[in-house]
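Write out the bound-state structure for L-homoserine.
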Amino acid sequence: MTSAAVVPGGAVEASLVGRRVHVKVPATSANLGPGFDTLGLALARYDELDVEATDDAAHVIEVHGVGAGQVPLDESHLVVRAMAHTFAYAGVPMPTIRLEAHNAIPHGRGLGSSGAAIVAGVMAARGLLDGVVSFTPDELLELATELEGHPDNVAPALFGGLTIAWVTPEGPRHKKLIVHRGVSPLVLVPEHEMSTALARSLQPESVPHSDAVFNVSRSALLVAALIQSPELLLQATEDKLHQHYRAQAMPETDRLIRLLRAAGHPAVVSGAGPSILVLASDPSERAEAIRLVEESAETAWQALPLAVDFLGATVTDAAR
Ligand code: HSE
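---
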């Protein structure tokens, strides 16, 4: 972090009043099969927010689209908490804000909605503090990861594309890669939600060494398949570390993934579920996967053919 603040304490906060930023954050799919807590993909479906620093007595929060009428509209709102976290790190008192959110990322479905809200808050704070404090990419990732708990959703939400994220003693780090143009993601979203905390509680403390070796080989192969050799995606998305432990909590997801994979489609649980990500090779494969799910699903599933987002989160100056 570099600080360009030359004004005494309190004056910085006052100087922010009237600043307004627009933030756009992509959905993400984490794990991608074998890359548990490590690999993530940014997808072209977005939450968009306008945030203005005010001198009102309290925050004013409006939510449209996904989450409207369900998420809190006070300082416990996840975007506001992430902003407060970022302002605290910068050592600048956070002003009250007017926040208008237009959300399109489904909640509780394994598409990174909480990571997106956290990244939105970090980026909104970064935008409001532009010219006062600047943040490195590692700092943005660390701030977001501190709130999310693991970096595999927040890294692609921040930076776009395919990301490899890992944790070092100095904090989380990432490498962004550009996905092969022959990869056509399809997300299948059920009506019911799944709690990440519940999914994580089903994980064992330790796994057989042979399973760890299995996943090391598949996740290394998956990086090559996604950037260079999509024809290897079916083998590269095999996993023994998390999906079968969690299957009991999402039986239809498990059944449909088995069906899709048996038909040759590289299908995996998206994040902690219950959505399914199919890393199809072309639009006709997507259509075939959608047809299979429509024919055999017992509940309603929404099909979202989504492009890979290559940009990640953006913050633009709306007005001053
Ligand atoms: N890697 C995480 C998990 C993603 O599967 O639990 C969900 O936040």
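---
The mean pLDDT is 95.
The first strand starts at residue 2 and ends at 3.
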